[in-house]
Amino acid sequence: MLKLVFAGICWLMALVSFGQNVPTDTLWKNEGSVYNVNPWISGSIALVGLYTNATGLKRLRKLPLISEERLNRLNEDDLIGLDRIALRQDPTKVSTDKAQRISDLLLYSGALSPVILVADRSIRREWLDVTLMYLETQAVTSNFYTWGPLGPSIVERLRPAAYYTELPLEEREAGNNRNSFYSGHVASTATGWFFVARVFSDFHPELGGKKWLLYGLAAIPPTIVGINRVRALRHFPTDTIIGGIIGATVGVLIPSIHKRSKGHLQVGAAYDPEVKGVALGWRF
Hints:
It is a single chain. By secondary structure, this protein is mainly alpha-helical. It has one domain. It contains eleven helices and two strands. It has helices spanning 2-19, 39-60, 68-73, 96-112, 121-124, 127-147, 169-172, 184-203, 211-218, 220-231, 237-258; strands at 264-271, 276-283. Strands 1-2 form a two-stranded antiparallel sheet. Strand 1 and strand 2 (276-283) form a beta hairpin. The radius of gyration is 22 Å and the shape is elongated. The model is unreliable at 1-29, 263-271 and 275-284 (pLDDT under 50).
């Protein structure tokens, strides 16, 4: 119950952050900055998110073994054609350990990818805002996996390894094999690289349509991770696709929410016996 309470607090704070448009402390606020980051809210989301994600992952690693009876009932015909690709491998020839190492390495590189932003002088001046915003972004991504409605806490799907009768029974029945949907590796990697693309684009609006090239480049690392997660018998293709979409969305969405607006919304109301209405206006 305590874990759920902390997770609820994290999501509540995230929702507050999504709707925030309040000025920060005068010592913190920079009118010329690209983003409006409240250090107390973003920092709290990052800290609480670190705890809730750690407890969530610990719980997911302690899932009960899969019964041999259930393993014997598995049928690849129950899968869509795309996902059957994951079951067309020879585990005696495919280097699953190598694929696992590659996906782990790219996961770590994705997590550290925003470090390259410090090479840009204009971004370096706002390093604290960008850092807090990134920690908040990864907190949302990680907790959406460990506690969210699309993650393994709610959706149970057996990993491809469970289908391979060539593998030892103890490897197939492991409780961790219940966590196929969706790929957290791909989601976290996509979050990091799409965050980099979004932030760099926000600081350099002169890029115009060329910013889509950045997003195209950002999609390469999570794609490679996804391929290797399938080769490692950890995920089906659709698991990696969904993970990539979720990670990329969060990586772009959080900076978008924090971005300062050049104008502000004005709301007005009019009433008389003949005219009633509400007016919205945007002042630049």
